[in-house]
Design brief:
The protein is 32% helix and 15% strand. With 184 residues, it is α+β, with helices and mostly antiparallel strands. It has a single domain (40-87, 98-182), classed as Transferase(Phosphotransferase), domain 1. β5 and β6 form a beta hairpin.
Length: 184
């Protein structure tokens, strides 16, 4: 089965034909009984990593990887979708946007305002998704970016120059104060 989407862009019409996928990962996980069978966890994770490997080998950073952007067809095959925020990583230093991506899966460097990032932001998002597959709920949930950073620090420890040397180069690093609960 295929899905056909029609878009009108100014005076040009674009038709996109996509394979129909029964679920996105978000919906799929909502329907599971926990703990999930380890074979399902392995299969999903392995396929997501293969997809990211393909993107990254072709110098593409997805930038908005999250469960609702991972589709699963009736045969259990994973498809990484919604590449609307994706960028091509060119050789040399580049500056990118940090606004407009899903906060719960945003990497610490994005949360600290860095506009210089690489494939690591997709790997951070994958790690958050992997935890969500295992436990059945998102790893870090927040209502704003400061709260998001605080939740990450509560679990992983307070970032500073001793455990993350380049943090001093992050634009928003000095603007955030951590309490003792974030220290590890």
């Amino acid at each position: 089965m295929i899905k056909i989407l029609n878009y009108k862009l100014k005076e040009t019409s674009v038709t996109i034909v996509l394979e129909y996928c029964s679920w996105d990962l978000f919906t799929f996980l909502e329907q599971q009984t926990y703990p999930i069978d380890p074979r399902i966890t392995f299969s999903l994770s392995h396929q997501i990593l293969l997809g990211l490997n393909y993107l990254h080998r072709n110098r593409i950073i997805h930038r908005d990887l999250k469960p609702s952007n991972i589709l699963i067809n009736g045969q259990g095959e994973v498809k990484i979708a919604d590449l609307g925020s994706a960028i091509l990583l060119e050789p040399g230093e580049q500056e990118f946007e940090i606004e407009g991506f899903t906060r719960w899966y945003k990497s610490p460097e994005q949360l600290f305002g860095s506009r210089n990032y690489d494939f690591g932001i997709d790997m951070w998002a994958f790690a958050c998704i992997f935890a969500e597959i295992i436990q059945g709920f998102p790893l870090f949930t927040s209502t704003n970016e400061i709260e998001q950073i605080s939740k990450i620090a509560e679990l992983l420890g307070t970032p500073d120059e001793t455990n993350w040397k380049s943090i001093v180069n992050m634009p928003d690093y000095g603007k955030i104060q951590f309490g003792e609960q974030g220290r590890k």
